[in-house]
Amino acid sequence: MERFIQFNDETIDSFLFMEMADLAKTLSKNGEMDLKYGPFSYLDNKQQTVYVSHFWDHRKRMDEVNGLKSDIYLRTVGNLTETDNEEVINYIKKIKHTSIPKFSKQLFVMVEDLRLEEICKVKRPGTKKAFSTRRDVFRQYFQAQLKVNLTKSVFTDSLFNALFLLLNAQSPLEEPPSINEDIDLAMPFLHNRLSRFYETDSTAAVVRICLEIVDVVDEIVKKDMLNEYFHLPEDAYDQADLPAETFEDLKRKDPLANHDVLEEESTGDEEVIDEEFRTWHRETEDKGESFLQFDLDQGSQSDLMGEGVREGDDGDQALAMVQGSAQETDKEHYENVKAAEKEHEELKGGGESKYGKDNRYAVPYFLSPSIPSFEEQQLYHTYKAEISPFQKKLQKMIEKTLEHKRIQPRSDLHFGRLNNKLLRFITDDNPRLFYKKQNPSTEIDAVFSLLVDCSGSMFDKMDQTKLGITLFHESLKSVRVPHEVVGFWEDTNQATKTSQPNYLKPVLDYTASLKPSSGAEILQLEPEEDNRDGFAIRLMTERILRRNEKQKFLLVFSDGEPAALDYDQNGIVDTHEAVLDARKQGIEVINVFLSNGPIDEGQRNTIQNIYGNYSILVSDIEELPDVLFPLLRKLLYKSI
After folding, report:
1. What is d(CA 502, CA 312) in angstroms, rounded to the nearest whole number?
2. How many Cβ atoms are within 10 Å of 306's Cβ, its own excluded?
3. Is 0.85 surpassed by the pTM of this model?
4. Cβ proximity of 217 and 159 under 8 Å
5. Which residue in 137, 69, 64, 80 sits closest to 112, CA to CA?
6. DSSP 480
7. pLDDT digits over 204-231, tens only?
8. How far, in Å, CA of 561 to CA of 530, rounded?
9. Nearest 5 degrees, angle CA 441-CA 442-CA 444?
10. 73 near 120, Cβ under 8 Å?
C-alpha cells in the first residue's frame, strides 16, 4: 500500500543495496552479516549488522558508491577484526564522568576510523580510491560546518570540525582557525596530540591519546557538542563479552517494593466470596510478548509455607483457556482462516531461509472464495460484454495462428507427398523430395498466475483492475490456457513484531479457471490493508513451479511500493530478490503498475529497481484493457 504521508521520502536503489550487502558478507566472511541504512555508519557486532550512512545519499553516483564502500571497508576489514572491544567499553565508562561525552565519543570514532583506514589500504590496496573520495567529501563537508558553527558561536562543534580538518590536512603547513580565546590557547597542545594519532597501532593507543585530549577540552569548553557527525553505539559494545544468561539468571530475584506480611491467623468464620481474580493492575497494563507474563511488582508477602505441594506432571497445562491454536475470527470473509491454520503450522518452521529474512515472521493464510452471488454474476456479465471485442479478436488471432501452424506443410522429407522440385534428384547426393501437408496441431504450452495487490490504496483502482483481469481470464479460458487469480494483503491490525498474518485469496485456481461458468469470483477481490509483495511473490512462485507447462508467467498488478510492518526499508529489496529468484527458476515475472494520474520519476525508479524493464506503467486506469490486450497477445504468441 502506498504511504500517503511520508516523513522520510526516500527510495532505495535495490541493485546498489544488494551489491553493498554482498560486499559486506564477503569482506566479513559471514553469510549472516546484514546491511542496513542509518543516519551514521557503525558495526553492531552483536546483531551482526553493518550500518552504512545516509550521508552519501543525493551525491554524484561515483561519490555515493565509493562512500558506501568506504563505510563497509571500515566496518568489516577494520572494526570487525582490528578494534579492541574491551578498550572501547572501558573508554565509554571513563568519559561518562566528563561533561563532554558526545565530543569524547565522536573524537574516538573519528580517530579510530583514521587508523583503520590505513590498515584497510594496506590489507586491500583496491580500497584507496574509495577512501580518497571519502576524505575529499568529508573535508568539504567539515569546512562548511566549521563556518556555520563559528558564525553561530557553537564553539565545541567548531573545535571538533577544526580537529578533523587538521587530522586530514592536505598540507603540513595548514593552520588551525581561531575559535575563542580559551580554545586558541590550548590549540598548540591539541595539535601536538593530534599528530601522535598517526603513530597509533592499536585501539588502546587511540584511547590513551583521546583521554588526554578530553581532559584538556573538558576544562576549556562550557558545553558539549550539539551536532553528531560520528556515532559510537554503546549498546553494541555494552555487555558484549558477558556470558549468556543461565536458567538461574532467568528466575525472578527482584525484591517487592514493600515487605508487609499477611497475618496467618484465621477463625474459620470468614465470609468467602467466589469471584474471578484477574492479575492486572497499573504496573502491568502494558502487555508483554508472552501470555504467561504475570508480573506483580507491588503487593504483600505471605508467611504461609504451604505444606501440600504437588509435583507437576507432563499433562499439566499452563493455561487451559489458550490450549487451542485455531480461533474464529470476527471478520466474515476470513472464515477459512481456521482451515489455513494447519497449513501455517507446516510452513512456520522455514520462514527465514525459505521466504527471506524480512519475512521470517510472516504467516500465510490461503482463503477460499465464496459462491458468487446473483449481483456478482450480473455485474460480471456486464464486464464480459465490455471486454468482449478484445477477447474475441484475440481468440481469433490465436486460433488462426494455431491453424496455420497445423496445416503448414513440412517439406524436404525422405517420404510423403512428392513435391515439384525434382531437379534436386540429379544435383543432390541425398535428395529430399517429399513433403507432408498435415502437421500435428501445436497447442499453447503455457500457464499464468495473476497476483493482485489488495492493499488499501487500491480502493480507487480495484474496479478497473477487475475489468482488466476479466479480459485476461476470458481470453485465456477461450484458448484453454490454465491460470489462477490471487489477491494478497497483510492484516495491519493483527500484525506484531513476531507475527504478521498475510492473506492470499485464490478467487480462481488452475482447475476452476477453465470451467465455462467461472469468472464472477474475480469480483470478490476488494481493497484491504497492507501489502508484503516479496512474500506473496515467493508463495506464488512455489505454486506455479508445481505446474508442468513449459512457459510460466507471473503477472503482478500493483499500485505502489511494498508497505507492511517492519518492511518499509527493505521491502523494495526483498521484492526485487523474490522477482530475481522466480526468474532464475524459469518464470517470467511482469509488473502492471496502476495509477490514476501522472507517474512521477520516483515511482518509475522504484518500479525499475524492483522489476527491471519488465513493467508496464498504466497512468490512466481507464485504459487498462487497451494496455493489457497487446501484452496478452505477445505472451500467448511466445507460447505457441
Report:
1. 38
2. 6
3. no
4. yes
5. 80
6. T
7. 999 999 999 999 999 999 899 999 999 9
8. 11
9. 135
10. yes
